[in-house]
Amino acid sequence: MLASVLIIGFSLILLVYWFRYTCILLLRNSGTEKQLPAADLRLDFARFQDALNPASGASLESLRRALDRDYEVLSYLLEHAPSLNRNPFERHVLAFDYRLMRIWYCVARATAPAQANGAIEEMASIVRFLAQRIGREAAHTPA
Hints:
It is built from six helices and no strands.
């Protein structure tokens, strides 16, 4: 009985580790891709690097709402344009990570502002990743 509990616990720890490592690897590799002009996308995620600086005075809650709007737009595009969704595994993994980071932000914003800031940064990275993928796939899709 104890062995089964230990095996299940260890397996869950490895699953969480794999998930976090996969998300970080996907987002880190997306940083090497050509950046898309934010003006062409009409999305707010491009201004987050400056806004996340504590000296900017930007509200994390307003940034989260803007990120949620951008994420919803990009998710809608991916769901309704199958030619843009060539690798659904990445999208589903990052969608789950986005939801987890949104929950983590809600938990941490009152007690640990630095952790909440990290969650917002990761959410912005996910939105940037999705926008880059959509831009790249749209550029390769025949009109």
